[in-house]
Specification:
heterodimer; A: 131 residues; OB fold (Dihydrolipoamide Acetyltransferase, E2P); three-stranded antiparallel β-sheet; B: Peroxisomal Thiolase, Chain A, domain 1; Peroxisomal Thiolase, Chain A, domain 1; 2 domains; two-stranded antiparallel ribbon; 18% strand; binds zinc ion; ChsH2_C (chain A); NA-bd_OB-fold (chain A)
């Protein structure tokens, strides 16, 4: 999919270093043993503003979704990482009939010719990716 | 002692060009004062709220030539601001720190030769950071965020698009009786279903309008209100709810909102229950927002908002007249001032063709952010306890 060109903004180096290497790196507060989305601005538990970064498993479940009327349709979602935080995400390899609360997903990484690598979420079973 | 809304000022609303938000705000305050039979110099308080299209701030006092104010503030809890401002004005009057307070909202996001949607949208070729990635992947508009909320409600409770459509149809039916409404042509469920997807499950007819303009109200004591030009609209209760949804496991985002806490607080203060409410004027940025607000206020059980809407309760002739002026879906989008202005019109009996049969107790809601902020007012033509 052509999404334009992604650039770093000075606060996202660990995240985009992660996507380049096929790893989902998100925010984490070690003190509180709590995970956050990569854009989290701090930990409400202890007030820490400089959250650490940590590699998430990439396993997720579908919370809710919306479909943009494009050709082909764009499946956008809130997904819940196995570690707890929710991410706004784009689904890949899904059809309308697949969509349900709790659908098992797994992070997948795209490496465009220009700009940063990014993450999509695809349906996933124990035997591996459905599609 | 109680407090009352005694003035309502509304500029032209909709595709109104050539006036800045500050000018629109000033015009609305002048209109509200004139409506109340007050001089601008009678105001000793001013609360200001603005939308997306530029900011009238507290410099509005200078624009209006107001002097010796005892209360002046810019207030922002997004779409919940109108109700919040009125409650702050009422509390200031009650505790004696001001006597006569104007509350105004102005916005001018529409520009000539620009589509309504683009006023609240962004697009780009290069994207920066994590937020840029999310936007690049397609999540760019408030519409999509509310679509995520609505879809979660649908998946969990079986709410249908046709049930959301019933809200759009009822609201439009009310709008057809409002000369100020931007959209007055009646619609059917079929029209709703046939309208284009904006962000599935939201059709175009699930989404509010975009409008330029300004609306102001004036709050004073119930005692003073008796001597003014128009019938007072008495403030019986208010509340707010800011649930602080965190986007993480266990969140009830989309399923429940701050309306639950806000509505309960406002109704408790007013000494009423949902059974006493004659009319609802609810913040309807989307049809779904009305549905979830009705549930959270307790007009029906959680998850039954769809069936309640589809029962015909909300439209003309229904048991709970709701958004009697056409709301933000069909009349005009002035954030929380849309439901509040219609509540004042109804309480005064000025609804004309759309006047609700009974208006003894009117419930008014505001909703801001992505269901992050909520305010409630209970208003009545009668003094509380009278
Ligand atoms: Zn912490």
């Amino acid at each position: 999919m052509d999404i334009g060109v992604l650039r770093r903004d000075g606060r996202t180096d660990p995240f985009f270093d992660g996507t380049a290497a096929g790893r989902l790196v998100v925010r984490r507060c070690e003190a509180c043993d709590r995970w956050f989305a990569p854009d989290a601005s701090g930990c409400p538990g202890c007030g820490e503003e400089e959250l650490g970064w940590a590699e998430a498993s990439g396993a997720a479940t579908l919370v809710t979704w919306t479909i943009l009327p494009k050709e082909p349709p764009a499946f956008l979602a809130l997904v819940e990482l196995a570690e707890g935080p929710w991410l706004h995400a784009r689904l890949d390899g899904v059809e309308r009939a697949d969509l349900r609360e709790g659908l098992a997903l797994r992070a997948a990484f795209e490496h465009p010719d220009e700009g940063e690598s990014y993450v999509l979420f695809r349906p996933w079973t124990e035997r591996g990716s459905v599609r | 002692m109680g407090t009352s809304i005694v003035g309502l000022g509304m500029t032209e609303l909709g595709r109104v060009y050539g006036r800045s938000p500050r000018r629109l705000a000033a015009d609305a305050v002048r209109l509200a004062a004139a409506d109340a039979g007050l001089a601008l110099g009678d105001l000793d308080g001013l609360l200001v709220s603005h939308g997306m299209g530029g900011s009238p701030g507290i410099e509005l006092a200078d624009t209006l030539g107001l002097r010796d104010l005892r209360l002046l503030a810019l207030v922002n809890s997004y779409g919940a601001t109108a109700g919040a401002m009125v409650s702050y004005a009422a509390m200031s009057v009650l505790n004696g720190s001001a006597t006569t307070v104007a509350c105004v909202f102005a916005d001018a996001p529409l520009k000539p030769e620009q589509s309504a949607g683009s006023a609240y949208n962004r697009s780009s070729r290069e994207w920066y950071g994590f937020g840029g990635m999310t936007a690049a992947l397609g999540l760019r508009s408030v519409n999509s965020h509310y679509a995520l909320a609505a879809q979660r409600h649908m998946a969990r409770y079986g709410t249908t698009s046709e049930q959301l459509g019933a809200i759009a149809v009822a609201t439009r039916a009310w709008a057809s009786g409002n000369p100020l409404a931007q959209m007055r042509e009646p619609i059917t469920i079929e029209d709703h279903q046939a309208s284009r997807w904006v962000s599935e499950p939201l059709h175009l007819l699930d989404c509010c309008l975009v409008s330029n303009g300004a609306i102001a109200v004036i709050v004073t004591s119930a005692g003073r209100a008796r001597d003014l030009a128009r019938p007072p609209v008495h403030l019986w209760g208010w509340g707010q709810g800011h649930p602080g949804h965190r986007k993480e496991r266990g969140s009830d985002f989309g399923l429940a909102t701050g309306a639950a806490a806000s509505g309960a607080a406002a109704m408790k203060m007013a000494g009423i229950t949902t059974a006493d409410v004659d009319v609802c004027e609810l913040y309807d940025c989307y049809t779904y927002t009305v549905l979830v607000t009705l549930e959270d206020y307790g007009f029906c059980a959680k998850g039954e908002g769809g069936a309640f809407a589809a029962s015909g309760a909300l439209g003309p002739g229904g048991s709970l007249p709701t958004n009697t002026g056409g709301g933000q879906l069909s009349a005009y989008y002035m954030w929380g001032m849309t439901p509040l202005s219609e509540a004042v019109i109804q309480a005064r009996g000025d609804g004309g063709q759309r006047q609700a049969p009974s208006t003894d107790v009117i419930l008014v809601s505001g909703n801001g952010g992505i269901l992050d902020h909520h305010s409630t007012l209970v208003v009545s033509p009668h003094e509380k306890g009278a």
